[in-house]
């Protein structure tokens, strides 16, 4: 669904954005970097409130949204733990959203159930931003990932991107792959057979114009990749713990592996990492995942600014 501008709109799925929408968000985010670094003062969101409803743990997404709102001059309210909300008393998501939308100008929701953000959108009187819904979508992570690739590597469509790890349950790669497809980017999907991206999603990527190949061995891919996008094997998404144990630790990016990589290749990760990137990589020229985490602030500043109509 292409939008004509983001003002007053919800952002639940990356498909809610047209390619011009995505490019506009990235352009605005470029301008927000000095303010995100604290080098410029912005007050455009003064008097505006962001509500963060996090029914699932988060560090970077929640804090970067709150930092983004603060850098714009606005304020945040909400909860980071459902036990501290009326959800612990049995209140439905619909009612939580109905009430919260009376207090805030925009709502950010993270929830363990796929489709929860779309449900929240139905019951909210203000725009809703999806901060992750189960194994579904994480569109603002996609935008900051695209922003990182563009800032660190150049034109997105000219890169060869290897998506590595849990491609079955990983919502970040589901969203990112669809975003990359908009730019016609070449993708290599590297995963164990049991964690490979669902076939229907792969076909959708090809239909959208992406060049997609599948692989199981990272060693065969690392030498030709411009971007290694590494994800953790998400234990909490597995319905069967034994299935998780069989694939845990399948891929590890370390200095030995990166000796085969292009000198200009970058390593990204949505974080947190739990062993799939060796700390020795942190000091190499390839490591861009902490810079990627920072880029969440200017990108989310851009998203909030555009949705709230702050000098669009």
Tell me about this structure.
The protein has 312 residues and is of the alpha/beta class. It has 2 domains: 14-137 and 295-308, Aspartate/ornithine carbamoyltransferase (Rossmann fold), CATH 3.40.50; 139-293, Rossmann fold, CATH 3.40.50.1370. The chain is built from 10 helices and 9 strands. The chain has helices at 19-36, 60-71, 93-100, 116-123, 139-153, 171-182, 199-207, 241-247, 255-258, 289-308; strands spanning 49-54, 75-79, 106-111, 128-133, 160-164, 186-190, 211-215, 227-230, 266-268. The chain has a 5-stranded parallel beta sheet. Helix 1 (19-36) packs across helix 5 (139-153) and helix 5 (139-153) crosses helix 6. The longest helix has 20 residues, at 289-308. It is globular. The two termini are 21 Å apart.
**Unreliable segments of 5+ consecutive residues:** none
Considering the protein shown, what is the CATH homologous superfamily of the largest domain?
Answer: Aspartate/ornithine carbamoyltransferase
**Rg computed from alpha carbons, rounded to a whole number of angstroms:** 19 Å
The CATH architecture classification of the largest domain is: 3-Layer(aba) Sandwich
Total domain units: 2
Strand order of the largest sheet: 7-6-5-8-9
**Backbone shape:** globular
Strand content: 5-15%
Give the termini distance in whole angstroms: 21 Å
Average per-residue pLDDT, rounded, comes to: 90
* Count of DSSP-assigned helices: 10
Number of strands: 9
Task: Give, in order, the helices and strands.
Answer: HEHEHEHEHEHEHEEHHEH
CATH topology of the largest domain, anyone?
Rossmann fold
Structural class: alpha/beta
CATH C-level name of the largest domain = Alpha Beta
